[in-house]
Amino acid sequence: MIQEKTLAQLLSHPNSGIDFRKVVHGDQKFEYSRPIVAGDELVATLSVTKVQSLGAHSMVTSESVMTTRDGEHVVTASSTLVVRGDA
Fold this sequence. Notes:
The chain is mainly beta. The protein has one helix at residues 2-12; strands at 23-32, 42-54, 57-68, 73-83. It has a four-stranded antiparallel β-sheet with strand order 1-4-3-2, with helices on one face. It is elongated, with a radius of gyration of 14 Å.
């Protein structure tokens, strides 16, 4: 899935400071403008929309906006990852 690829870029970015071994999936939601159909060529743009500290842990919320190559919105996928701290 496209969102998984955008999240993989975030997790592998050297400045993210996220150790994937400490990541737990927190939440995920999708807001569709229309269904994805065979033949769609989609482009995804990832944004980190919120970072919140919870004691030794952090919650990182990101949003992947997916459009067609022509710019038509198809779906926005939001995901929250919980990054466990060294407690």
